[in-house]
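Marked as duplicate of an earlier ticket. Keeping the data here for the record.
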Amino acid sequence: MDRRQFLGSTLVFIAGSGVAIPGMAAVRTRWNVVESEGFDAIAFLGPLSGQELYRRYYAAAADSFVMRLPDEVQVDIPRLAEEAANSSFGLLWPVLANILSGAGVTTLSSVIAALRDLDGTVRPAYLQSAYSDDSDFDWLRSNSARLLRVFLAMQQAGFGSFRQQRLGADFPSRIAEVQRTLAEFDVVYWQEKLTGRQFDPIVNVVLLAFSKPHGAKMQGQTFLQAVDYDVATTVRIAAHEMLHPPLPMHGAAAKAALEVLARDPLIMRIVREHDPQWGYTTLDGLLDEDICQAVDQLISEALLVERSPAERWHKADDGMHVLAAGLYGLLKQDRWNETGGNFERWIAAAAASGRLAPEILHPAAAKVLQRPGNQLWPLAK
């Protein structure tokens, strides 16, 4: 997630009053801003893996801490990250954090305890979540001993105090500041309007020291983000992450959309050939992500914290989210931001009517992206 400054925009609600602008419902969203040593320990696997995706933010911290770890652990973290990326597991720390999130991993000790009791502590909640995947859990089980050694070594090396030093003495006041600032942004109202689904009004925001560049969705209505993101970025992350999954990905509507998109040469080329560091290496994974991006763009616009769609999708992940731009363009054509409705029915109708076929989807994306229709991806160097 890139950072953008929130300058001079008018809030959707009258600040501090709790009074909605005429025509809007009362604020439905209830924000809960917290921190977590456990999630930060998991996130720090990214910088410790040596991957440039994370080192661009945390190289100095990783280089300082890694020397405290045993040689065999230093060597194994990059191996774990590579093996996860080369399997269906995907990005190591975000997926690991999601699987463990139902076990209440608030501290490094609780992460260690969860890894020692995967079937008793972790699996029951994970099986009930929308993210349950047998292959991911099997990968975790087969590598749990290695991960346990890593986290035990981090604990022995004093990760807790290292993290606190990184966050600084002002961290508690930062949490309170974010809590106050978010109070007027009614993300849940717009999510319910634009999806036709019901959401819990409580949104949990976990501020971390080492989570860039991800805003990562956990089980339930909890997401992780960097402590220094501005309010506009936090609202955008919440608008996006809470949508996952945007509809039942094994349901009839998703299957119909996937059947159409599987015949689109450009979309399938993006799935096969994009840089795997961004994730989304399957068509269903890309559809899940790009639906969320299309809908969250509408929510961000409604809350006046948006980025330019063309700029956003040009910069993000080497410009691979052509599908998101196309879906957003079709939703704008339908004035979905005004009408709202049942999104699952919308995607089913779009698949059935041919609107997801290249001859309609690609021109919609080209208009949003401000690129020629035959140059949607890859981007010109």
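See parent ticket for discussion. Strands lie at 30-35, 202-208, 216-217, 222-226.
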